[in-house]
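Two quick folds needed for the group meeting slides. Do the first one here.
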Amino acid sequence: MTSKLNYLISVSLKRKIKTKWFVIANIILGIIIAGIINIDSIIMLFGGDFNNKTPLYVIDETNVAYELFESQVKEMDINLAGKEEGSYEIKKYEKSIEEAKQQIEKDKKTIVILLQEDTENTLKATIISEQFLDTLDTQVLTSAINTVKVAIALSNSNISDEEIASIYAKATIERIYLDETKKSEDENMEIIVTTVFPIVILPFFMLTMFLVQMIGAEVNDEKTTRGMEIIISNVSPKTHFFAKVIAANLFVLFQGLLLVLFVLLGMFIRQLIGGNSIVNGLGSEVSKVITGLGETGLASKFIYIIPLSLLLMVLTFIAYSLLAGILASMTTNTEDFQQLQTPIIIISLIGYYLAMMAGVFEGATFIKILGFMPLISAILAPSLLVLGQFGVIEFIIAILLVIVTNWLLVKYGLRIYKVGILNYSSSGLWKKMFKALKTRE
């Protein structure tokens, strides 16, 4: 049995891996992943200018607004854009407005700000540019102008410099948690779960769908070509079933490893060409959270979160493959299997979206229950563990439930598989399946 099992596994893997389409698809996938990681460098190669600062010329006719305007733009630019060096090259422009417009015609990126006194509204500002400004530019410049206006108004109201400084000083914010189990780092973890985590678990979701479709297509292909009869005459249905499941899981794990290698290759290329840290491209707030994980001690949690999550994902891959093999044996063609796999896709989607919204449902009993549910737990339980809504014991329980599910699928699903793989008629199929469940091996 072992030799036949190994032979079927090797044949199945060769059919999947030793094909031109597998090589071509992974070459294209590798290029796409590496390209996404280095998208800014690619755009710069074709004329983009991510690292070039936008010239910002300020014509200050009030003679008091420039310094405050400059400091406000720099502060907000760094906070919003997440760049320590800022996005603007700010200069005080001493020439006329007409000469400033000529400067814009020479450099299309140049932005000119004209600040003038206004007897009614204290300050009047004019923004001049060649084209529309993006949302970030508009937000930074308008906020800075409004801040300058308030500062000038306060200054004209004979308020002392100390009082003005006190007004603009940042408020001291202290966080107090009545729940002693909560920490300030937990709030930051919610940002990671809602923004970064869905990107991390997306490959698992895609590989799961690929696994289900692959097993269904292979079993239906053997049934359609009548090759199943020849195979079953030489090996037992049990051997055939296990061979399909093992080969499919090995292939998916191999494909997952290739995805990791593609990501590492993309990051190596980014480092090789001198690109900025990939973390900085995730946004200022998320970048600060991830950078601060080591300082807060939260990074130590990933020492056990990652191995437990990988174990749960592998076991869930096995569960999906067992279920897909059982369902595929019950169908007579690929179209029927595609209809049967729809509930599996819906279940996976539910888990994926719940994982993204786990922070919103904090403390909800129903989401904790779903965190234990096999097929969903591999996506949902890791996010609950990161958020602190699941402990290690609860996570281990989720793993044990998947193991029990796999055992039940093997014990009872194999009975259905034995009847289904040689069944070519859909009439009375469910009756045959239920009858098979009642029989003993």
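Then this one, please, same format:
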Amino acid sequence: MKRTEQREHIFKVLFGVEFNEDGERGEQTALYLEQLEDAKEKDLEYIRTKAQKIIEKMDEIDGLLNEHTKGWKTSRMNKVDLTILRLAVYEIKWDDDVPVGVAIDEAVNLAKKYSSEEGPAFVNGVLAKFAD
């Protein structure tokens, strides 16, 4: 499985966090990963581990997003864009294996696929503030 595909699955796991209680996260993640029949164990482990790391830093990531956006606090952002931003900010700040430019490009591509027409520009604009 390519990194882009892994990232998309991480996005989906993280998106589900918005709709599940804290105690259900592990079970919901496991149910999602079970559906990936063709995925190798190393891919599943990468998705599971990275999603968990992002969830653990979610409050800190949201704080950073709130500091870097004007008029768009996380409470006002649509859930798709917020999830994409959380994933990308984690990669920019804490994942040394992902170059900043790649994190931004991948986030914009996710927004093109899953967000509104304005989503890619919004995601790009927010993440540009983290690239400096």
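Slide caption for protein two: The first helix runs from residue 3 to 17.
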